[in-house]
Amino acid sequence: MRDFEPDFRDELYELMRWRRDVRHFRTTPVDEALLMRCLDAFSHAPSVGLSEPWRIVRVESKAARAAARANFETANAEALARYDSDKAENYAKLKLAGMDRAPVQLAIFCDESTTKGHGLGAGSMPEMRRYSVVAAITLLWLTARVEGLGLGWVSVLDPKQLSRDLEVPTDWTLIGYFCIGHPEKDHDTPELLREGWEDRAAKLEIRRA
Q1: What is the pLDDT of residues 158-174, one digit of tens each?
Q2: What distances in angstroms separate CA 48 from CA 52, 138, 166, one per listed residue?
């Protein structure tokens, strides 16, 4: 089994601590080779049955980005309406999308009908394909951070509408919309914690069965 030096392990834990969900980007373009190095993380990601069900769409055209932005605006207004006055005021102050400035925007899907992997591990739990995509995204997130890029996961969206707007196959399920770019600032604590939206759990609770 491969041994890793203590310094490397410490750096790994430090990387995880500094991984942030970035919402504030500089408009500086992302070098294409750098982006490809980050996306290469998918080639190292685990997937159920080696199905590799992730499908990546680079959202680049003005029309596609406008549709995604409009989608967010509608969903964001609906989300705001669900909170009471105090929480609504707090919510309204949060910058929940980086769509206006992030130079790279990706929509990442799960191909629910892929034949790769021959259904191994997905027969009783087909959602494992989606979990596989999330695991791959986590590697992308860490890789982007170590390369000096920020990644923001936009979840305030209508996934079905976005899938129609991007004209993807009907058996693809949206896992997330991602903004990538050079962050304006670096933080070791989540923005939602800094803004008083929610606190970290005091400790990890583990049940025994």
Answers
A1: 999 999 999 999 999 99
A2: 8, 15, 26
What per-residue confidence (pLDDT) applies to 94? 85
Q: Report the residue count for the chain.
A: 209
Tally of CB atoms within 10 A around 12: 13
Locate 27 and state its tokens.
């408009």
> CB count, 10 Å around CB of 78?
11
What is the spatial distance between Cα 161 and Cα 167, in angstroms, rounded to a whole number? 10
What domains can you pick out in the chain, each with its CATH number? Answer: 27-194 (3.40.109.10)
Tell me the pLDDT tens digit for each residue of 63-94. Answer: 999 999 999 999 999 999 999 988 999 998 88
Reply yes or no on whether the pLDDT at 108 is more than 80. yes
Q: Can you give the chain as a three-state secondary structure string?
A: CCCCCHHHHHHHHHHHHHCCECCCECCCCCCHHHHHHHHHHHHHCCCHHHCCCEEEEECCCHHHHHHHHHHHHHHHHHHHHCCCHHHHHHHHHCCCCCCCCCCEEEEEEEECCCCCCCCCCCCCCCCHHHHHHHHHHHHHHHHHHHCCCEEEEECCCCHHHHHHHHCCCCCEEEEEEEEEECECCCCCCCHHHHCCCCCCCCCCCCCCC
Residue 144's Cβ-count burial label (10 Å; 0-12, 13-18, 19+) is buried
